[in-house]
Amino acid sequence: MNIALWIIQGLLALMFIGAGATKLQYEKAKKSLPWVSKYSKGFVAFIGIAEVLGGMGLILPLVLGIAPVLTPLAAIGLLLIMVFATVFHGKRGEYKAIGTNIIVIALALFVAIGRF
Predict the structure, then answer these.
(1) 68: how many CB neighbours lie within 10 A of its CB?
(2) What SS3 state is found at 82?
(3) In the Cβ-directed half-sphere of 64, how many Cα atoms lie within 13 Å?
(4) What's the domain count of the chain?
(5) Residues 8, 110: contact at Cβ < 8 Å?
(6) Domain that holds residue 104
(7) Residue 21 — φ and ψ, nearest 5°?
(8) CA 49 to each of CA 43, 76, 96, 106: distance values in angstroms, whole numbers, following the listed order
(9) 112 contacts: CB under 8 Å, gap ≥ 6
(10) Contacts of 53 (CB under 8 A, 6+ apart)
(11) What is the CA radius of gyration of the chain?
(12) What angle do CA 45, 99, 69 make, to 5 degrees?
């Protein structure tokens, strides 16, 4: 179980840190993510920062042994981001993205439960 949790945490961390880093580069994000151009740079940066910090929170607390309770809390935070993303994509009619969001929600929930 521990190995599965680490693998999922690593994959989620890579995904969220990568996605968040893209959003922190506003001009680059506008080219790859059509919705970005309709929102302020600050809003997109906020999402990017939350994703990068959440991704780091999936790994660092356990690796460093400092406040390991932060790992399941990071998983819950990322789960909430994905719930909001699901609603966001649904309102925009981007139904293909919702399937991916649901998978990520399930993986983040698995990590949260497994690490609590």
Answers:
(1) 13
(2) helix
(3) 11
(4) 1
(5) yes
(6) 2-115
(7) -65, -35
(8) 10, 16, 25, 22
(9) 72, 75, 76, 79
(10) 20, 74
(11) 14
(12) 60
The answer for residues whose C-beta is within 8 angstroms of residue 13's C-beta and 6 or more apart is 55, 56, 58, 59
Task: Give the pLDDT confidence score for residue 7 in this predicted structure.
Answer: 97
Task: Output the CA angle 55-50-101, nearest 5 degrees.
Answer: 70
What is the longest distance spanned by two Cα atoms in the chain? 42
Token representation of residue 41: 């740079």
Question: pTM, whole model, 2 decimals?
Answer: 0.91
Q: pLDDT truncated to tens, each residue of the chain (116 aa)?
A: 999 999 999 999 999 999 999 999 998 898 888 889 899 999 999 999 999 999 999 999 999 999 999 999 999 999 999 999 999 999 988 888 899 999 999 999 999 999 99
